[in-house]
Design a protein that fits this description.
Layout: H1 2-17, H2 29-34, H3 36-39, H4 52-56, H5 60-64, H6 80-91, H7 104-107, H8 112-115, H9 132-137, H10 141-146, E1 151-152, H11 162-165, E2 208-209, H12 211-215, E3 226-227, H13 238-242, E4 285-286
Antiparallel strand pairs: 1-3, 2-4
């Protein structure tokens, strides 16, 4: 008996140290048995050419175990990092997603599956889990309130969408003067404010530039989402907004000429001088007059 044990000892040791059997690919057909609701219309999905195991990994063990999230790459139980890596295995070459790793969403552990639903999307475009406005408002309630103000961009009415101005996958810090990468802005004309997509007449270049427009950008005077003031202005009375800069301070602007002080002939107690843009109509820049007059 002793010699039999010695004889078979190498075989026992080999069995203990043998590597586990490799998981295997089984194709889409077994998936149809348990997930018919997913696969019924999946042929319309842009991920259909990838097949199930392209995202979920080999499903041999999953089939053998008759299901269970522990035997498959189940995105519902994955942490943010592996979800991002799985999606970027195909989408990393897309230019709009080039900055996703440093986007404010990724830094807050908001990843692809928080906004996109691959199997049961609410919108065919971008496979969003909810309509875009509802989806963005679920995390940005302050902006929802701003879009209810009297002067606003008509997002709730469906005229524009959040993604017309913002890139949820992140933007370059040098995209524009407005908020850099923290606002995830989608630039117009490669590197300018998204406002200029619609307001292209304000773009220039102008012979006579308004330094605040060129240096600080639109948000120097306007609130981008919504305001209680006309024209989305940051202040209710125009001259109080202008006086934030036009106080006689020197060394400002691209030509270092300073900010012109309001002349003595302008009595700001007189209502006609409280609406500067009645005369200075080309306030965003002019090709004819350095004072932006008509």
């Amino acid at each position: 008996m002793k010699w039999i044990f010695v004889l078979f000892l190498p075989l026992l040791l080999q069995a203990q140290t043998a590597p586990p059997a490799q998981n295997r690919f089984v194709g889409n057909q077994p998936c149809r048995t348990c997930h018919p609701d997913v696969l019924l219309n999946f042929y319309k999905n842009p991920h259909a050419q990838q097949q199930c195991e392209g995202c979920h990994g080999p499903a041999g063990e999953h089939v053998d175990a008759h299901g269970g999230k522990a035997t498959i790459k189940a995105f519902s139980v994955l942490s943010p990092a592996p979800i991002l890596e799985a999606c970027l295995s195909c989408h990393s070459k897309d230019v709009p997603r080039a900055n996703i790793r440093r986007s404010p969403h990724t830094e807050a552990d908001v990843v692809c599956t928080n906004c996109h639903s691959i199997h049961k999307a609410a919108t065919p475009r971008s496979l969003l889990a909810k309509p875009q406005t509802e989806l963005c408002y679920s995390c940005h309630p302050a902006q929802r309130a701003q879009f209810e103000m009297p002067s606003k961009h008509r997002v709730n009415e469906g005229v524009v969408q959040c993604s017309d101005c913002h890139n949820p996958h992140g933007s370059s810090p040098s995209t524009s003067r407005m908020g850099s990468s923290s606002a995830a802005l989608r630039p117009a004309f490669d590197n300018e404010e998204p406002c200029l997509k619609c307001h292209s007449d304000k773009r220039g270049p102008f012979v006579f530039e308004h330094p605040s427009v060129r240096v600080e950008g639109c948000e120097a005077c306007h609130v981008p989402h919504g305001s209680t003031n006309a024209k989305l202005l940051t202040r209710p009375v125009v001259f109080t907004l202008c006086l934030e800069c036009h106080n006689g301070a020197g060394t400002f602007g691209r030509q270092n000429t300073g900010v012109f002080q309001t002349p003595a002939t302008h009595n700001l107690l007189d209502p006609k001088y409280q609406h500067c843009t009645l005369c200075h109509v080309r306030i965003h820049g002019s090709n004819a007059d350095p004072n932006f007059l008509r």
